[in-house]
Amino acid sequence: MRVGLVWAGNNDNSADWRRSIPLAGLRELATIPGVRLVSLQTPVPDADRAVFSEMGLPDLSADLTDFGETAAVIANLDLVVSVDSAVAHLAGAMGVPTWTLIYEPADWRWMTRREDSPWYPTMRLFRQPRAGQWEEPIGRLIGALRQYMQGAQTAGKPR
After folding, report:
1. pLDDT tens, residue by residue, 60-112
2. Which of 17, 21, 105, 136 is deepest in the core (most CB within 10 A)?
3. Which CATH architecture does the domain made up of 2-154 adopt?
4. Separation CA 7–CA 75 (nearest Å)
5. Are 98 and 92 a contacting pair, CB within 8 Å?
């Protein structure tokens, strides 16, 4: 299963400190059998370079120069995992299954107490229970991906 990954938004955005996650917090995704991670992150933050290399992520950032290039990669993925970013919106608009990590308090577009989005039918939201607490939604996301992959293996679907 090819899974695109975005863990940080545009640091020029005033809310970026709330929505971006150090890549180390998502390290466990790289250990899930059958999952091949593809970085959609542009640029890759310097602070994440060591973990980025450790996880074996391909660096496509030089090639992801616009939404057209990014959409071409997304179209070849099975799932996109992202913080609230332009890539999450692009993948959702394309109808690609997208799991989005949402900070608290959420931007108005994500409404409240929902795990889905009326804007993007293929999107699933993983919300912080309280501001700054990423462990719980990341744990749920990792658990959901593990469960999905186990179900795919049980059903005999090739991955």
Report:
1. 999 999 999 999 999 999 999 999 999 999 999 999 999 999 999 888 888 88
2. 21
3. 3-Layer(aba) Sandwich (3.40)
4. 19
5. yes
Q: Locate the domains of the chain by residue range.
A: 2-154
Cα 132 to Cα 129: distance, rounded to the nearest angstrom: 9
pLDDT tens digits for range 24-58:
999 999 999 999 999 999 999 999 999 999 999 99
**Pair of tokens at residue 148:** 């999905």
Counting every residue written for the chain, the total comes to: 159
Whether the CB-CB separation of 32 and 146 falls below 8 Å is answered with yes
23, 43, 57, 107, 124 from 52: Cα distances, Å:
7, 12, 6, 28, 25
DSSP β-bridge partners for residue 3: 37, 79
Rounded Cα–Cα distance for residues 138 and 155 (Å): 26
Q: How far apart are CA 40 and CA 42, in angstroms?
A: 6
